[in-house]
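Figure S4 source data
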Amino acid sequence: MEKLDPAPAGHWQTGYRFGEFRLESDGKLSRGGVRIPLLPRELAALRLLLARQGRVVTPVELKEALWPNEDIAPDSISKCIASLRKRLEPDECIQTVLKRGYRFSAEARPFGGEPATTLLRLAIPPLATSHGVPEFLGSAIAEGAGVRLGAAFSILAKDSVSALVRRGLTPHQIGETLNADYVLAGELRRVASCYRLRVQMIRVEDGCEIWVEERLADQTWWISLEIELAHLVALRLSSEGVSISASAGDAEEQESRPERAEAYEIFVRARHEWHSLERHRMQDALQQLLRAVELDPALVPARVDLAYLSVAQALSGFMPPAIAAEYVRQAADGMTAPPARGEALLPALGWVSFHFDRNLPSALRLFARSVHLPHESWISRTRSAFALSRHRFGEAIDLLQSALRADPWSAWVQARLAWTHHLSGESAASVLLARAALERFPEHEGTLLYCAIILAFNGELGRAIELARSLAQRMPYFDSAAAVHAYALAVAGHSDEARTILERLQWLSRERYTMNTFAPAAYVALGELDQALEVLQSSDEVRCPWFFQMLADPRLKPLHERREFQSMLGILTDMEAEAKRSPIEE
């Protein structure tokens, strides 16, 4: 007879939340804090159904997963599923699909876990560059080599690595801070018509520089450096007795072919530009990405960047949501049998389905199909924004905490976590997180934006005004910063200054698109509730991606009893009801 709770010691997988249930990464299931025991095959069946949520799992697949190489009675599978269903009551999570199998029909969200097998952890800081070397090359070569080594190593998150570089840490210190096994660091210099690459591999445990290499490449074919760098790492570590995957350093990727070099170079230049959050650079990058896709339609990373650049511009207020949605769709159009990296487009498409199309069943299908994707900065931001817009604050917190485990020095993730606690009504936690983010990332635009809101709402008005003013002066084209500045001033009683800023935003809206979704809180602080409702309604009309999050913002509490506000909340309620009537299809 099977014993309960089989979870092998040290074996970790993804954990999930669904309904009132929580399946821990070690296999422990609970409901409302109460432990629910599972038999080994029940756990295996539940994990398989969760991993394939929304899709049919056939009896053959269940048999192979639960009873490999065993003969079983005809009703063994149905009995196992029936027993599992009883443990999940009263929720109806598992649907029988006639003559096909079973489907996990409830919405489930992953929240972390450690990998079942451990790869060596490798940090690759951007290469230092000297005079005459284009700025983008240092990060492009490091990132490209990391992609090629991704099957052999756990490549540490570039946001955290880059943040530590900006703080002045040495490569060894970066490795120690991020608990890496190795750090690959180097510099790129221009020598006549060539680039000279000098790299060293540092073993973090003892700080030993285990090898140093130099390579030359023609300036017209610098891509060869990232290819050779990946091969070099694989070769040298193998000679050190470190076992790594044979696929490391694979040079057969489409972007490395000479005939496609122009498209690839345009793409990496654009990637460097658009992560700046500077309006003109992001708009230039958009044109570059469109050109890269035109030159090489099979260049999937350029399509992925085009999609998330469009999402980023809509969230920043630099592009109308309708145009952003069109670019996201354009990024996905024309892809034939995309490689696995093409799945990174799915959260962006889910974002369009939810915020612009207001089609929650479609959004749920797209996010469910991409649930297995690992943390990447914009994928995690899109996932958490989806949860926040649905007012699923627990899910958003789980997603962001999981992202922080993978990317502990990501300024955006830390600031977004403070914002999530603010929206959920946890003021004390939001203030603590805001202060911690400010201490670690005092100049980051996301930190300044979210923390100005949180501190103003919680009475730290002087600091909030200074943070908002600093951001608005640094980024005068960032409408949200101006609106937050107006809010902080209004709360502090500086009504005339606040109204001047809001009037300027209204004037700008006659000249160009402005994102005004952060302005209602300022109008509420000024006591102008009708104006606040009017601005909210206009945000709804243009499908602003912040609209549903704002409906949860405690700063708008004075609007809650107004009929117009209740009507706007009803939009989300109706979408959720429609999703319950439309189970996720395969």
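Figure S5 source data
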Amino acid sequence: MRQRRPPRGRQKRPSRSQRAHRRNSGNALRHAERRIAISLPSRGREPERVVAHLGPTNSGKTHAALDELVAKGSGVYAGPLRMLAQEAHRRLGERIGFENVALITGEERVNEGAPIVCCTVEMAPQSGELLVLDEIQWADDDERGSAWTRLMLAGEYREILLLGALEALPLVERAFPDAELKVFERMLPLEWVGERTLRSLGTGTVVVAFSRKAVLALAGEVNRLHPGRVAVLYGAMPLASRREEIDRFLSGEADVCVATDVLGHGVNLPCETLLFAETTKFDGDERRNLLPWEIAQIAGRAGRFGLVERGHVGVLAGLGWGVADPDIVESALEPHVRLPGEHWGYRIVDEARIRPRLSDLGVDDPRDLDAALVAWHRVAVREWAFESWLAVESLQPLRLRLDAVQRRLAQRGRHLSLDDSWKLVNAPVDEDNLELLGTLALAIAGDRVARPHLTFLLDTTRLRDARLEDAEQAGREASILRWFALQYPGVGGVTIERAAALEEIAAARVVSRLRVEVESPTLGRCRSCGRSCAPWFPLCERCAGVASRSR
């Protein structure tokens, strides 16, 4: 991410507590290394069997892996998303009985003692009989890749099943040179259908755009032609809201679904035709063209085997503000990168990210954590400099979280144990929610100042007239509070029941506000004349010009 230049002029003098915190941090960095005993993860026993199920979306690799779990009668399925863990739990429960399947994520625990466990990767146990590790290419993810890498590098399972895109073949071969490879082919071919217009959208069509504003504006346009029969999916929606929209599309209540690229992460829809309304996206730094592997991952959602009989892919034309380049999409439907064994893919994934666990840091005082992170990173980089498949993550995000927690505690003269500090540093909290992280730290430390804030967040009556954005934010907060309630039941007045109620009501409010937004759009409509316009502008070009001339 680009560094912003600090503003010029006189800077505000740090407070006394901030100066004290900086002095303490500096002392820790200078002296803690004497007390640090760094260790690196390793496996005590090698797996007896490693099999890689690699192939594109809709090729049956996950179905085959779940068959193995059923045949074994015990084991672990670990996926990247709560929704995928829930989907595996549902599919397995319907086959062998829900009493035999557990669901464990950061936000929920269901039937924990069951012989088969469906979980998110971060919650997977480090040992067992059979591990099904899904979406193995996520090991190269900047933020979460280490959870996959840990299981590959140090997970002590008798058998390991690796699932993922064919692009991860180089990584699999480097991590497990003797792994058995099973390549899966797509069950239904994709057909290029070129350009389609809004008026030509038929039942079973999914249209993809790449921002929340674009999706909402586009859904409003589609709703004019399909009143009340448009489903919406985007990342900021609470999970229960996404499920409801998916169910509307599955049941036929909605004819068209408008979605972001959240569609590419395990959302199974009866999609016959998938159209790209845009072929550019903002990636956090700049707006750029979609990469071929991104297009292929999304396009692969068309033609789901067993749901529809064929898959069509094209672009949406004539929207006015959305720009979709048909050449970019059509060219991405055929893999073009040569992989080992005469296979073809869209990119090469040959590295896996790794970062420490608390047990690797060798400290017993939370004040030494920052120095230990610095020391571990230095040791790991030196140790794995010539390991072709291990890449040491930047630990700056962890250090920023740690600093936010420790500063908030220092302001109130509070302290946390080493274990509690580490849990908070690794909590599922986005960078824009660090204030809530500080509040949770104070709640654990027993500071009464945290309770009013948490009481407000858990008060569902505040959502009675909430805007869509506020309901989405409440859904994110509910997810964090569910995690917190599982770790610290009742602390600060947070219980799993209250957090779950907040999540449910936030999700319901999101769905109700979505209906209003789709049926009476505020995005993508000129505030002056009501004509269609780009969703990131309040006025169309014509009215903006009139307004500019009248100044």
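The first helix runs from residue 16 to 31. The CA atoms of residues 524 and 533 lie 5 Å apart.
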